[in-house]
From TrEMBL:
This is SCFD2 protein. Belongs to the STXBP/unc-18/SEC1 family. PANTHER family: VESICLE PROTEIN SORTING-ASSOCIATED (PTHR11679). It comes from Podilymbus podiceps (Pied-billed grebe). Keywords: Protein transport, Transport. InterPro entries: Sec1-like, Sec1-like_dom2, Sec1-like_sf. GO terms for biological process: protein transport; vesicle-mediated transport. Gene3D superfamilies: 3.40.50.1910.
Length: 165
């Protein structure tokens, strides 16, 4: 709401900063229902004081490529055929393990909203070190740059799709 720095007032600057922090809170609230992937912030501990940042995409790929293979809590297997539906139905009566996302030799990741080049490289490197032999395909609705990321976060209404009508 300010076309030049000459028209900038303290109230306009405060409103802009409040809007930015409200957007960040909204983004964090979108993951509140998750049990495992609900935060990208690690506050540290008594022994390791420094807080750290762990990207959501990195957390998901590490869980998929985890050799200990616990049952992922926030990643769900969707049954896709009659055989899978029968297995799912019988799993209520007998111990049947759900397929793990890392079982398949092909991993396809689709990022809604966009992905950066560094995120694609991070996924490639993680899969190569943790699950060699797995082919990974990263698809996205956009290739993000630093400028486009800021514009998507703060300059557009994320709840209203851009239909170009």
């Amino acid at each position: 709401g300010c076309d030049s720095s000459l028209n900038l007032t303290s109230q306009k600057a405060t409103d802009a900063v409040d809007s930015i922090f409200q957007s960040l809170r909204d983004i964090a609230r979108a993951r509140m229902h998750m049990k495992q992937f609900n935060s990208i912030h690690n506050p540290g501990s008594n022994t390791h004081q420094a807080a750290s940042y762990k990207p959501l995409l990195k957390q998901v790929v590490e869980e998929i490529c985890n050799p200990d293979r616990p049952d992922p809590t926030d990643i769900e297997h969707m049954s896709s055929g009659l055989t899978d539906l029968l297995k799912t139905g019988f799993s209520m009566f007998m111990k049947v393990n759900r397929p793990h996302p890392g079982d398949h030799p092909l991993l396809i990741i689709f990022m809604v909203g966009g992905v950066t080049v560094s995120e694609v490289k991070m996924v490639k490197d993680l899969v190569a070190t943790r699950k060699p032999g797995t082919q990974v395909i990263v698809l996205s609705s956009a290739l993000l740059t630093p400028r486009s990321t800021i514009e998507l976060l703060f300059a557009t209404d994320r709840l209203q799709p851009d239909t170009d009508i």
